[in-house]
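Archive entry. Fields below.
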Amino acid sequence: MNWTIPADSPSETTIVSGSPEETVAAGERLAGILKPGSVVALRGKLGAGKTCFTKGIARFLGIEEEVTSPTYTIVSEYGGKIPLYHIDAYRLKGDDDFTALGGEEIIFGRGVSVIEWSERIPESIPAGAVIVELEILSGERRKITIKIPGTKP
Ligand SMILES: Nc1ncnc2c1ncn2[C@@H]1O[C@H](COP(=O)(O)OP(=O)(O)OP(=O)(O)O)[C@@H](O)[C@H]1O
Ligand SMILES: [Mg+2]
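PREDICTED_STRUCTURE:
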């Protein structure tokens, strides 16, 4: 992996991952700049690699439990150096649903929150969130765009 997260923000970095393991490694590298309260909003279609990227964030946080898409439970909590809240908005109708299940209390808490299908709850994503877009190119190639906002997340 011959790229780094820029020291200055705002920034936008685009990388091409050639394998699931590289996508995990990208998540792990991003996690190095996260803090308690950081929100990572993932975007991308089914199978783009959102959960794979989240596994890297979990690895950085020292979480040994297997991370899987919380499609039915909506929110999974993992205990790491900082708690990880893994949210899947796939089955939510929209922002109101997210608010109703107490989503705001979670993402404004002290954990790191990672949200799959964040495009389904656009109003709920804080301005300081890191936006990660995953796009399927072909085969195992994935284009990953990491947007870090003006103030460090
Ligand atoms: N470069 C890559 N990065 C990530 N995943 C890859 C890559 N190449 C192939 N894959 C495969 O694509 C799939 C990605 O699955 P993953 O669960 O991470 O996607 P997802 O975006 O979370 O999907 P969903 O919307 O269903 O939750 C896995 O089966 C993985 O093995
Ligand atoms: Mg997933």
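CURATOR_NOTE: The pocket of adenosine-5'-triphosphate (ligand 1) is lined by residues 17, 19-20, 22-23, 44, 46-52, 69, 116, 140, 142 (CB under 6 Å).
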